[in-house]
Design goal:
heterodimer, A: 265 residues, mainly alpha, two-stranded antiparallel sheet, 73% helix, globular, B: 311 residues, alpha/beta, Rossmann fold, Alpha-Beta Plaits, 2 domains, six-stranded mixed β-sheet, four-stranded antiparallel β-sheet, 11 helices, 13 strands, 28% strand, elongated
Chain lengths: 265, 311
């Protein structure tokens, strides 16, 4: 038969833009429909903000109010959670349960798969940060110029990239059922030690020494500096730390990817 | 070592058309486990070829190599003359794999829509759903479907790109008889449209009923290859069951006996020369009783071929 000849009659390419858009759309739909994910990554940071920011009453941390201070802090916490769970948990389950194999057997451009996960992380991170800001402005007496607020949102959302990279690294090594636990093992201690739950200066000295090695510390410092609560260090160092961390994580993810192909493939 | 009897196939066309997929001297190890060994297999255009074998024989490994999901340890795998892991190769290939779980919160139509977008000339979504018989499930979420319905959705994802070559790994596992026959009909229709299909199965009836050609796999090697009729004729054509005083060894020494085993109080003899064996049996044992002669089905052929694997 002609259709199974060695040389295909046409080599028309499918539309890459369409594939990327659909992949991202369905990744988002998939996650929106599983409340486990949306609740834990969006609701927890907001709940913390309400409890420790709004309910506890206005205090002063350094030179700014606690309701303002906690936006960059819980913003970092939310972005980190959305990005880690959005990539690591879904990747580990796709890998472990065979779905990634089906995708790999199809002509899906491999990058579309990762692109979709990062887009989803960015969208959830943005929602997280915007809701925190909204709470702060409406109920926490926070006043920010539009330009400052925009810069704050962009800074925090940019942070979903290093944490998506970290999520990929975890997703390639964690099993489908253990992934959420593994994520939390990194997520919660890192958040604490980076000063996301209580202001950095109140942390024990040795924790402060550890924090400089932790990516959420660097992201939160960048975000705090936008609202004038940074420690006065140059931002470049923080960006470099996050970039280096991203590279490291992508390297680990790539290693995991190769390892996967070798062992089950 | 498995004393695999590699059986020559008679009557194979001398000038076979160029294969659309080929495994050449392929070995595949997973750590210390040898999944395939000196594996040679061609898939020809427009045929349905079934890879038949017990669990763990290497069927799925062969499919994974042909899909580029795994690399051979040694040897060469090609599909449409190219590397099977190329995206351009995948554009002409559809695959139905055994999957643990599919994202359950997406609807059937959404899954098909996404997979269709990967291919250059996909079928219309409605057409895909119709072929797979899942039009009425289009708006259902994958997670609420029954096992058989899920299989049909996976089948839809395999065919939605209108591929020239289809790999179906145990496609009818978990289907009831009716659903299985429906899927067979759809597979036959694909063949009628000139598609090439490679399917693995441990349902012997499935291979017999669908395949133009069967490759029997055991312990990572092809131990027999041919049409269903040839596979059947490769082993003893008949089974003689009788109650006899003769020892198994004596029965084994009769002409053209392939296999002898005891079944409760009777002895079962597989042979291609039933009449001759019966004559000898009757002359050797005057008290021979309870004679039954039946034709060995594909199932028997298959068991006979793969029996040697007990270590």
């Amino acid at each position: 038969m002609v259709s199974t000849a060695i040389n295909p009659t046409s080599l028309r390419q499918p539309n890459l833009l369409t594939i990327y858009a659909k992949e991202a759309k369905y990744e988002l739909l998939k996650v929106l429909r599983s409340p486990m994910y949306s609740v834990s990554t969006v609701v927890f940071p907001l709940m913390f903000y309400i409890l420790f920011g709004l309910v506890m009453g206005k205090q002063t941390i350094g030179t700014i109010s606690s309701t303002l201070y906690l936006i960059p802090a819980y913003g970092t916490f939310g972005v980190m959670g959305a990005s880690l769970f959005g990539t690591a948990a879904t990747l580990a389950s796709d890998r472990g349960l065979g779905w990634l194999q089906v995708k790999r057997a199809s002509p899906m451009p491999p990058f579309a798969y990762f692109f979709a996960k990062v887009v989803m992380s960015v969208i959830f991170s943005t929602a997280d940060v915007l809701l925190l800001l909204l709470l702060g402005v409406l109920f926490g007496g926070v006043h920010l110029h539009a330009a400052t607020a925009t810069k704050l949102v962009l800074t925090l959302v940019a942070g979903s990239l290093p944490f998506s990279a970290m999520g990929l690294a975890i997703g390639y090594f964690a099993g489908p059922t253990s992934a959420p636990a593994v994520i939390n093992i990194f997520y919660l201690p890192m958040s604490f030690c980076s000063g996301l739950w209580m202001p950095f200066q109140y942390l024990p000295k040795f924790v402060q020494h550890v924090a400089v090695f932790l990516p959420p510390f660097h992201l939160s410092q960048l975000a705090l500096s936008v609202v004038g609560a940074g420690r006065g260090e140059p931002n470049l160092g923080h960006w470099q730390a996050l970039a280096g961390f991203s590279m490291l994580c992508l390297g680990i993810a790539l290693w995991g990817h190769k390892r996967d192909q070798k062992s089950n493939g | 070592m498995a004393s695999a009897h590699v059986l020559p196939i008679k009557g194979r066309p001398a000038a076979a058309p160029q294969p659309v997929a080929r495994l050449e001297n392929v070995s595949k190890n997973y750590g210390l486990v040898r999944a395939l060994q000196d594996f040679n297999f061609d898939v020809r255009a427009g045929e349905l070829v079934a890879l038949l074998g017990p669990n763990g024989a290497g069927k799925t490994t062969a499919i994974r190599l042909l899909l580029g999901l795994a690399m051979p340890t040694t040897g060469k795998v090609s599909v449409f003359g190219a590397n099977p892991s190329n995206v351009t190769t995948h554009m002409r290939v559809g695959a139905m794999l055994q999957v643990g779980r599919v994202p359950e919160t997406l609807r059937v139509r959404e899954h098909v829509d996404l997979f269709s977008s990967y291919y250059p000339n996909p079928l219309r979504i409605a057409e895909t759903l119709a072929i797979a018989g899942i039009e009425d499930l289009r708006d259902r979420k994958f997670g609420v479907l029954s096992g058989g319905q899920k299989q049909r959705v996976l089948f839809a994802l395999a065919i939605c790109g209108n591929p020239d070559l289809l790999f179906l790994d145990e496609p009818t596992v978990g289907l009831d008889v009716e659903a299985r026959h429906l899927l067979w009909d759809e597979i036959r229709k694909l063949l009628a449209r000139g598609k090439t299909v490679v399917l693995t199965t441990h349902y012997l009836e499935e291979a017999d009923s669908l395949a133009d050609r069967i490759g029997v796999i055991n312990k990572g090697s092809i131990i027999a290859e041919g049409t269903p009729a040839q596979i059947k004729s490769l082993t003893a054509g008949k089974k003689i069951r009788c109650i006899t005083q003769l020892s198994l060894d004596v029965c084994r020494s009769l002409p053209d006996v392939v296999k002898v085993h005891r079944d409760r109080d009777a002895v079962v003899i597989h042979t291609s020369q039933a009449e001759e064996v019966l004559r000898r049996l009757l002359s050797l044992d005057l008290e021979l009783s309870g004679i039954e002669v039946t034709s060995a089905g594909l199932e028997d052929a298959f068991l006979a071929l793969t029996r040697d694997d007990k270590v």
